[in-house]
Specification:
The protein has 230 residues and is α/β, with parallel strands linked by helices. Helices cover 35% and strands 13% of the residues. The chain has one domain (2-228). It contains eight helices and seven strands, in the order E-H-E-E-E-H-H-H-E-H-E-H-E-H-H. Strands 5-2-1-6-7 form a five-stranded parallel sheet. A two-stranded antiparallel sheet has the order 3-4. The mean pLDDT is 93.
Length: 230
Amino acid sequence: MRVAVMQPYFYPYLGYFELLAAVDRFVVYGSAQYRKGGWVNRNRIRSPHGGGGWQYLTVPVEQAALDTPIDAIRVNHRIHWGDRQCRTLGNVFGSAAQQHPAYLAFTANVAERHERLAPYLRRGLDDCCRLLGIEVDLVDAGDLEVDPRLRGEDRLLALCEAAGAATYVNLPGGRDLYSAARFASRGMALEFVGDLSFTGADGTVNDRSILDVLLGDGLEAARAYLRSRR
């Protein structure tokens, strides 16, 4: 069983979905600590004006204690963020994008009124996996029996064992974080997916939100890239 463990993000970049496509089971680590100013509740797409600028898609959240897990973060619905994001996508990708299955799935997601952030993150993952043809077993970390006192790599190892991992797969940024020897001592291999090499329509490596790829470059381009990396 090939397993990945990763905290959820709001429509993350294509490399995240490459990781999803590389495993049999994906543990959605919503019990990880929420970090203010990170990418959990926001992402970016190209600017309609070009020049390397960015447009940001952000789910506004309520203030929370420093140690609050992602699953407990509450959404600030006093801000009409969903309509604003849909208009942003229309401005960047044009009126034709409004018939795109990725746009329709996104608008349906942000039209929901959930108290917490987590359902928006999870539905975004589910919808994008469906559109990209990724077949993977998504499991919430909170549903696995793991000692809550464990931290860091010890907690990761326990999550992998609880998920039935024979191999733990991570993004390339984790190469300096984890020890292959420690995984081997628990009967598991450690592997990494390669660096993202997808070139977007503007000629740059597309490390923006998956929405930028799906709406700007097309579903088939994203699917073809993922097939080429298997």
